[in-house]
Amino acid sequence: MALIEVSHLQKSYGAIRAVKDVSFSVDRGEVVGFLGPNGAGKSTTMKLLTGYLRPDAGKAVVAGFDVTEDPVAAKAHLGYSPEGAPAYGEMTVREFLRFAADLRGLAEPAARVADTLKLCRLEEVAGQAIDTLSKGYRMRVGFAQAVIHDPAVLILDEPTDGLDPNQKFEVRRILKDMAARKAVIVSTHILEEVGELCTRVIVIAQGEVRCDEPKERFLQRGADLNQVFRQLTA
Amino acid sequence: MSDTPATPGPRAGAAFLAVLRREFAGYFRTPLAYVFLAVFNAFAISLAFFVGNIYEAGVASLDRFFLYHPWLWAFLAPAAGARLWAEERRQGTIELLLTWPVTVWQAALGKFFAAWLFLGCALLITLPMAFTVCYLGDPDVGVIVSGYVGSFLCAGACLGIAAVASALTRSQVIAFVTGFLACFVLVLVGYGVFDELLAGAFSSGTVDAVRRLGLWRNLEPFTLGLVDVRPVAYFLTAAFAGLGLSTIIVERR
């Protein structure tokens, strides 16, 4: 059984149909790159999948739990970092992660916090208030809260946005380390990341899936990925 | 790290307690909490002395001290409650909190009780007032205790209103002003001047019904040592209706 199953999701904001009819599934070991122009419905699909928004129709199943009907169980198996990696800025990194661990009711929360700080290379800023951190560190804090419980499903909305090349490399390194054991969805509008990060590509435009195929086949569509992207999303 | 998550899901109590602890500690993370406690204390005591003339009255009782509490809570409960949801929306952390394995009700209860406890701390700091009265005279301790209970319930009612105001906006300033105005109306209701205004337009039955909704009208019996069902129900209804409404507002997204 796939760890993520999305069938016929729909969501409108007033008259705007942000997600029209989106279906796909993701197995363990897959890293799916979610591509699409801004406003294509990538973030809305992720918000539906994580239970932040309720779908108008269709359903999302995470690790066997329906997100609408059994949200707490689904969310326990899910790690999510929203766009911009929001966090409680007045807390220190360690306090914030400890809060996430306590809220999730993890066994040995202090040990989980220590492991996660190490995994995400946050140890040197663990005592600093999140508000005082650079963007690179803040993105890593967002990532850290998403993986602290070692979830089966990981959903990251633009985790490399605004990072410098070294920081991007770092995020990719951590993702690759854990990807084999998880189902991962990463949204991005940086096409070059597809080759390095993903095993599969889903292109979304105007609230619809325009393309869903293995990375290799996507890369064969043309030498100029920007042109491929423009054609698919037109 | 294992293949599947270590825990199938958190216990409901764990999430509630985690939110409660974070929110309560959150007040003390900024200097604002101490300013708040100092302001509350200073106003509570100086209003009793300089406006209420508690000393000149020559009676060992705190009713003139509690007389001004509806005013204090109308101002300070919205100040403490403004951050409850508005700050989550502003920082974007609401999207984190609501995608963590916690129901909106657990989160809302944790937040509300953290804020109420914080207001309770403000009230506890005024206890030297009670000790002073006990030292100077021979007051009825039961009456003082019931006064404190009433004031704490009154704080909860104002906080319920503040929670609704906070759930409606991403701006703490707007949340504070709206919450304050709503509480302020409940303070005014039951004051003589306000009653006369109403009496000009409505029948005496209506005026009396409206009077019953005033904060002071419901707090007064407590300050006289009378713990009646009706004022208790009034304060708790306002507190939990506000809590419930704010939760419904947050759930609708």
Keywords for this entry:
heterodimer, A: 234 residues, alpha/beta, Rossmann fold, six-stranded mixed β-sheet, four-stranded antiparallel β-sheet, 36% helix, B: 253 residues, mainly alpha, 14 helices, 75% helix, 0% strand, disordered N terminus
Structural class of chain B: mainly alpha
State Rg of chain A.
Answer: 17 Å
Judged by helices, strands and strand pairing, the structural class of chain A is alpha/beta
**Architecture of chain A, CATH level 2?**
3-Layer(aba) Sandwich
Q: CATH superfamily membership of chain A, which one?
A: P-loop containing nucleotide triphosphate hydrolases
How would you characterize the overall build of this protein?
The complex is a heterodimer of chains A (234) and B (253). In chain A, 36% of the residues lie in helices and 26% in strands. Chain A has a single domain (24-40, 70-233), classed as P-loop containing nucleotide triphosphate hydrolases (Rossmann fold). Chain A is an alpha/beta fold and 234 residues long. Chain A contains 9 helices and 10 strands. The longest helix of chain A has 15 residues, at 165-179. In chain A, helix 3 crosses helix 4. Chain B has 253 residues and is mainly alpha-helical. In chain B, helix 4 crosses helix 7 (104-124) and helix 4 packs antiparallel against helix 10. The longest helix of chain B has 27 residues, at 141-167. The model of chain B is unreliable at 1-8 (pLDDT under 50). Classes of the chains: A alpha/beta (234), B mainly alpha (253). The A-B interface holds A 47, 50-54, 71-73, 75-78, 80, 82, 84, 86-91, 99-100, 102-107, 115, 145, 149-152, 178, 181 and B 1-11, 14-15, 17-19, 21-22, 26, 29-30, 91-93, 95-96, 98-103, 253.
Explain the layout of strands and helices.
The complex is a heterodimer of chains A (234) and B (253).
Chain A: E1 4-13, E2 16-26, E3 31-35, H1 42-49, E4 57-62, E5 65-66, H2 71-76, E6 78-81, H3 93-103, H4 109-119, H5 135-147, E7 153-157, H6 165-179, E8 183-188, H7 192-197, E9 200-205, E10 208-214, H8 215-219, H9 225-233
Parallel strand pairs in A: 3-8, 3-9, 6-7, 7-8
Antiparallel strand pairs in A: 1-2, 1-4, 4-5, 9-10
Helix pairs in contact in A: 3-4
Chain B: H1 12-27, H2 32-51, H3 63-66, H4 69-81, H5 83-91, H6 94-97, H7 104-124, H8 127-136, H9 141-167, H10 172-188, H11 192-201, H12 204-211, H13 215-223, H14 229-251
Helix pairs in contact in B: 1-7, 2-4, 4-7, 4-9, 4-10, 7-9, 7-14, 9-10, 9-13, 9-14, 13-14
